[in-house]
Amino acid sequence: MTDPIMRKDKDLVSTAIKAMLLFGAVALAYVILRSCSTPKTGIERFADDSLSRLVALQSPPPMPGVNFTGPDGEPVNLKALRGQPMIVNIWATWCAPCIAELPSLNQLSRDYAGRLKVVAISVDRDAGEAQDFLDSIKAGSLPLYHDNTFAIASKDGLAANGIPLTVMYTASGREIARVQGEADWQSPEAQRFLDWFLAQ
After folding, report:
1. Side-chain half-sphere exposure of 193, counting CA atoms within 13 A
2. CA trace torsion 51, 184, 135, 86 (10° rounding)
3. Which of 59, 90, 91, 99 has CA atoms 20 to 30 A from the CA of 120?
4. How far is CA 79 from its chain centroid?
């Protein structure tokens, strides 16, 4: 006949062993998962604060060939504008985040003139309305590019899920990253990203 105290001690030891084994398995799983996780070594290390929506697509699409209107009123497309690093932004006067972002884009264009082309494309119905708005905020460093067909934002264009959308291209036209939503291009995180981007 087994002593009830001995049985209780055996049950306690058995439970303790099971708990230790379970803890060990959880700890091992954690170590394995941590060793397999990818450290932040690419674009994602710049995705902070106002650039929290900065991403690099796994398979970025080629630079689109859709036409829109240039500052001279003539048709143009992004491929014709290649030659230096470029930031392409889609905006509209009826888009509150776009309006909030435009002054920092204007300053970006001024600060990086000669090193970086900023192409801000309005998708307003009326180009005159968009130009009046740029004039009202004194955005003289942003020449008006315009697309009232919304083709630049379509799946054959930049495949925007909404606006504003900003896409960064190397001088050869390779997409490096994009931001879906408003960003502050004068923020410290944007400055760090731009310094890295221009070194590519």
Report:
1. 30
2. -50
3. 59
4. 21
- Per DSSP, the three-state class of 69 is strand
Q: Which residue has the tokens 């099971």?
A: 18
Supply 32's token pair. Answer: 């394995």
Q: Is the pLDDT of residue 70 over 60?
A: yes
Mean pLDDT of the chain: 87
> Following DSSP, what letter does each residue of 107-155 receive, concatenated?
HHHHHTTTT-EEEEEE--S-HHHHHHHHHHTT-TTS--EE-TT-GGGST
The alpha carbon of 166 is separated from its chain's Cα centroid by a whole number of angstroms, namely 7
Angle at CA of residue 60, ends 107 and 191, nearest 5°: 25
| DSSP secondary structure letters along 186-197 | TSHHHHHHHHHH
List Cβ neighbours of 110 (8 Å cut-off, separation of 6 or more).
141
- For residue 121, what are the β-bridge partners? 90, 145
Is the distance from CB of 110 to CB of 141 less than 8 angstroms? Answer: yes
The model's pTM is 0.78
pLDDT one-digit tens code per residue, 161-199: 999 999 999 999 999 999 999 999 999 999 999 999 999
